[in-house]
Amino acid sequence: MDAVLTVPEAHNEPVLSYAPGTAERGSLERRLAELAGERAELTMTIGGRTRMGGGAPADVVQPHRHAHVLGVTRHATRADALDAVAAAGEAAPGWRDLSYEARASIFLKAADLAAGPWRDTLNAATMLGQSKTAIQAEIDAACELIDFLRFNVHFGRKLLAEQPASAPGTWNRLDHRPLEGFVYAITPFNFTAIAANLPTAPALMGNTVIWKPSVTQQLAAHHTMRLLEAAGLPPGVINMVTGDGLAVSDVALAHPDLAGIHFTGSTRVFQHLWATVGANLGTYRSYPRLVGETGGKDFILAHPSADPAALATAMVRGAFEYQGQKCSAASRAYVPRSLWAAGLRDRVAAETEALSYGDVTDLKHFGGAVIDARAFARHAAALDRIKAAPSCTVLAGGTYDDEVGYFVRPTVVECTDPADELFTTEYFGPILAVYVYDDLDEVVRQADAASPYALTGAIFARDRGALEDLGRRLRFAAGNLYLNDKPTGAVVGQQPFGGGRASGTNDKAGSWHNLVRWTSPRTIKETFAPPTSVAYPHMR
Ligand SMILES: NC(=O)c1ccc[n+]([C@@H]2O[C@H](COP(=O)([O-])OP(=O)(O)OC[C@H]3O[C@@H](n4cnc5c(N)ncnc54)[C@H](O)[C@@H]3O)[C@@H](O)[C@H]2O)c1
Ligand SMILES: N[C@@H](CCC=O)C(=O)O
């Protein structure tokens, strides 16, 4: 077709409430019962064909009811990984030669399917496999996933329209080529939307991809792959391999065609991937693009002028929604003694104690379980240490129980040592450390420097001058800063997401900043009447 096309305008998907009596609640509950009643074969998808990985099996369970197996997967082997690399290579020429509009329409169709007939499946799989409540699944597996697909199409179109100036007699063009080789997308357990975005964003820009989801997110990943196929994604464009990824990395990180890594997960794993790429640098055809969004130790800093009710709500929601398993979750708070003693302490403690965590298929709960036995053990050990530390006082929670599910109670700890690991280490769970301060200047330095991370942060103040001043002094302490709001819940297209320092490369998922990493532009200059003699005028 000869046309300069615009793409449909992107809008954020409205969040459904799942309140009692709503149509969406009944429909979701039916799908939950169906998926819980299945024992799915969680296959790989390589070159459009499904097969089980060749390695050891792994059960995918409900974290809040760990005896209930939802499906079985298998770790990918080196042979599986080699097949995935080959499939990505075979699909590459056809995929990159499709027009942008043809590629984009596949992802726009996937967005519409996710907004309609696939919504319940994605939400139910995320609730069951990752222990999200209905609302936490909705903002992730439905709305954010849909937003990533629609907004990326919009941002990608703007990127392609980015063209250079041309002097008279010439025409300069930028050809926004994909990378030469495959992109290796490795995704975390905690967001179905992130798991979908990491392979689809490079694919939209014309790349082919090997996608390695987290074992504990494999049920929702499985359905995401089916959704993309239903939207018409050609075989081999995204090749999903399963399991822990160790054998896949052995192959992919040593392969000359590795063109990029699109990672979200822990800082430790990203640093390992980066070091391996560094060690293999002479191996590659191009310099691989390394994009990684990683851990956080996200803060709330309250000024004495803060509104205590708004602050208490942000502390509880920001720390304990999805059991604190958001990279953005508030895990340390710095509050002035005046507010703390005047009722904030009692309010935060009481509201935290009142939170109900349980089986998320019962929609009355505020939260569910932590993701697996490893996370449970990490939290149990942290809580045992806290309870024995003289500088720490547990104000709410502090208990754990894994008899039925991996349950850790939401916990508020007041700690008099601002250098304690509570303020420096990412536990990735429902533990909020509070430091009560007398000296604002000292605490700003603590908030800035105590941890190696710089992902999200929130400042609470009603004094406009204080808000400005604190924002300036904490400029590099967070890639996403919230003023008088909790530090979680970034919305695609509204708060581009990512952090600096040890929190990642800050390439802002769901924005043009991210998409630009998956292209390697070629500049083309055409001269309409080229010179026909060598001599310059000054030589006459
Ligand atoms: N900054 C962000 O945008 C963001 C978003 C979500 C999660 N996170 C971070 O993710 C972490 C929690 O997620 P997680 O527990 O899934 O992280 P993780 O690092 O344990 O695992 C992430 C992924 O890496 C895989 N993996 C681990 N070692 C590998 C290897 N050698 N080769 C290939 N794959 C390998 C895992 O199987 C998983 O798929 C937290 O640190 C959190 O802060 C960050
Ligand atoms: N983007 C999400 C967090 C993603 C990390 O887990 C938020 O803003 O809460």
Strand percentage lies at: 15-25%
Count the DSSP helices.
15
Task: Give the fraction of residues assigned to helices.
Answer: 25-40%
Q: Which small-molecule ligands are present, each listed once?
A: nicotinamide-adenine-dinucleotide, 5-oxo-L-norvaline
Structural class: alpha/beta
Shape: globular
Strand order of the largest sheet: 14-17-18-13-12-20-21
Gyration radius, to the nearest Å? 25 Å
Mean pLDDT: 98
Organism: Paractinoplanes deccanensis
Catalytic activity: L-glutamate 5-semialdehyde + NAD(+) + H2O = L-glutamate + NADH + 2 H(+)
EC number: 1.2.1.88
Family: Belongs to the aldehyde dehydrogenase family.
Task: Provide structural commentary.
This protein is an alpha/beta fold. Helix content is 38%, strand content 21%. It has a seven-stranded mixed sheet with strand order 14-17-18-13-12-20-21, with helices on both faces. A five-stranded parallel sheet has the order 9-8-7-10-11, with helices on both faces. Strand 2 and strand 3 form a beta hairpin. Helix 1 crosses helix 4. Bound molecules: nicotinamide-adenine-dinucleotide and 5-oxo-L-norvaline. The site of nicotinamide-adenine-dinucleotide has 31 residues, from helix 8.
Short synopsis of the structure:
This protein has 540 residues and is an alpha/beta fold. It is 38% helix and 21% strand. It is globular.
Detail the topology: elements first, then pairings:
Layout: H1 23-36, E1 40-42, E2 44-46, E3 49-51, E4 57-62, E5 65-74, H2 78-97, H3 100-115, H4 119-130, H5 134-160, E6 170-178, E7 182-186, H6 192-204, E8 208-212, H7 218-230, E9 238-240, H8 246-252, E10 258-264, H9 267-279, E11 289-293, E12 298-302, H10 308-320, E13 330-336, H11 337-353, H12 373-388, E14 392-396, E15 400-401, E16 407-408, E17 411-415, E18 431-437, H13 440-449, E19 453-454, E20 456-460, H14 464-473, E21 480-483, E22 500-501, H15 512-515, E23 519-527
Parallel strand pairs: 1-5, 7-8, 7-10, 8-9, 10-11, 12-13, 12-20, 13-18, 17-18, 20-21
Antiparallel strand pairs: 2-3, 4-5, 6-23, 14-17, 15-16, 19-22
Helix pairs in contact: 1-4, 2-8, 3-5, 4-5, 4-7, 5-6, 10-11
The structure holds nicotinamide-adenine-dinucleotide (NAD) and 5-oxo-L-norvaline.
